[in-house]
Amino acid sequence: MNNKNDILKTGITLMVITGIAAIVLGFFNFITEKPIAKQLENTNMEAMKAVLPAEQYTKLDLSKYKFNFDTSGDPKLTPDSRLIEEINEAKSNGNVVGYVIKVAPKGFSGPVDEMIGINKDGKITGITIVNQSETPGLGAKSQDPNWNKQYKGKNADKDLVVVKTVPSQDNQIQAITGATITSRAVTKGVNTAIEAYRVIAGSNK
Length: 205
Description:
The structure is a single chain. The protein is α+β, with helices and mostly antiparallel strands. The chain has one domain (52-203). It is 38% helix and 21% strand. It is built from three helices and seven strands; from the N terminus they run H-E-E-E-E-E-H-E-E-H. It has a five-stranded antiparallel beta sheet, sandwiched between helices.
């Protein structure tokens, strides 16, 4: 009888402890949820301003656009609409100056969150890596402005390709040494942004 009572008491005690722990975790989650969301919003805003400075950014409703990309090309570089996280229309003085497109292609170690700016003339104004978990000293170099500045000024009239040597054509991007997979992932993200820009620009004509 005592054995059963002990088991019952232990069970009730564990239930109470578990319940209290759940309440505490829920409370901390509640009080940290908004600050985390705010921090993410600030990070996104800073990234947008870095790639395409503007006075105002308005998130577009992606359901209004048909992103039927041609997927018959090289899968390592071919645009993929599933990579699009969000697209923001950038305005200054009430006029559209371009679009900022956030994508998340899969790199060597996980998603590589990128922000790409493309102005109304169809030129890439810059890219920034918002978040990545690539190998330090290799794929992590994708965050280095000295590497990703290669994309700036490229025209959105053609997809980009990755090469291991010094580029000989305007649409070529030199890979990070020892990190071709990351280089292709970032470039695939940019190609996706380019294709998304074409769709949006075409629908607004």
